[in-house]
Write a structure and sequence with these properties.
- The structure is a single chain.
- The protein is α+β, with helices and mostly antiparallel strands and about 300 residues long.
- The protein is built from ten helices and ten strands.
- β5 and β6 form a beta hairpin.
- The two termini are about 25 Å apart.
Length: about 300
């Protein structure tokens, strides 16, 4: 099974979004749909029929009016039921440009420091009125982008900020508040450096210089602000990349471990089991499963 990083061509580069309506007829070959990921957060609204979406931990069966969100760089795979058509709206969006000075304080809530935004899908199941409101916003964004009336960029920006506000105010599990003390100006360059150097040895002394801190201060600062140590955070990133590579199916585990900067195989297996909850072999089997229950998913 293949996996790829899907490029998202923005309809308007300034808005950093792509919003489109799809109608798809399901077939047996849908089992071969590739796992993919992209840096943009993805919202899906089903308009007609039944649409399924798999992530490594969940299998969603979506009916008309239902909404889900998929986090940035999170593996996912869309499916439809053989012989049935489904019409759905998809919004891909890079959220970062929408945090202007007035909203900068809230950037930290949506940075997905440890967990993907997918975990917010409980909101839509728990609060039907929120799901309806978010679905309406997605339809309005699509309408604005398609019609391109005067000032549509302003309207789209307002709708997206409204969408973020709805998620923030209805997150009664406070998943978006778990890392409210993270400084976005510090975390972003650190996270970007880590992502770019996952195949290498990452020295915390080098990273601390990027943000103008001493080694000792940065170590304490990171643990306090993020909630885990710098080393733990890097290892989480390494294993997340390894998960994507394992799903490809054309590299052996040793090569994958080296590609994510872990040369000690015993250490790689230990980290993978800790963060993924299974062995690399079990993870590959799960990702190759066609049906949610057979693949070890929980239906939502």
């Amino acid at each position: 099974m293949e996996i790829f990083q899907e490029p998202i061509p923005y309809q308007n580069p300034q808005l950093c979004i792509k919003v489109w309506k799809f109608t798809h007829m399901g077939s047996e070959s849908d089992d071969l749909v590739r796992w993919h990921y992209h840096k943009e957060v993805e919202f899906i609204l089903v308009l007609d029929g039944i649409h399924c979406m798999n992530t490594p931990t969940q299998a969603y069966v979506l009916k008309p009016g239902e909404v889900i969100v998929i986090g940035s760089s999170q593996l996912h795979r869309p499916l439809t039921i053989a012989g049935q058509s489904a019409t759905f709206l998809v919004l891909h969006i890079d959220l970062q440009p929408y945090f202007d000075p007035a909203m900068m304080h809230y950037t930290r809530h949506f940075m997905e420091v440890l967990n993907p935004l997918e975990e917010l899908n409980y909101i839509f199941r728990k609060f039907p009125h929120v799901q309806l409101e978010v679905g309406t916003i997605l339809l309005r964004i699509h309408e604005e982008v398609m019609q391109k009336k005067k000032g549509y960029e302003i309207a789209v920006s307002m709708h997206i900020k409204h969408l973020l506000l709805i998620l923030l105010r209805n997150d009664d599990q406070e998943l978006l508040l778990a890392h409210e003390y993270v400084d976005a100006d510090v975390f972003r360059p650190v996270s970007a450096y880590i992502e770019e150097h996952l195949d290498e040895k990452i020295n915390m002394a080098d990273v601390s210089k990027i943000v103008g801190m001493s080694y000792a201060y940065f170590s304490k600062y990171f643990k306090k602000k993020v909630g885990i140590s710098f080393t733990d955070f890097v290892n989480r990133k390494r294993i997340a990349k390894a998960e994507r590579m394992i799903a490809i199916g054309n590299k052996n585990v040793t090569d994958i471990a080296i590609a994510v900067g872990i040369e000690n195989m015993a250490h790689f297996y230990e980290l993978f089991k800790r963060f993924s909850g299974c062995t690399p072999r079990q993870y590959k089997q799960k990702m190759r499963g066609g049906e949610g229950r057979e693949a070890g998913y929980d239906y939502v």
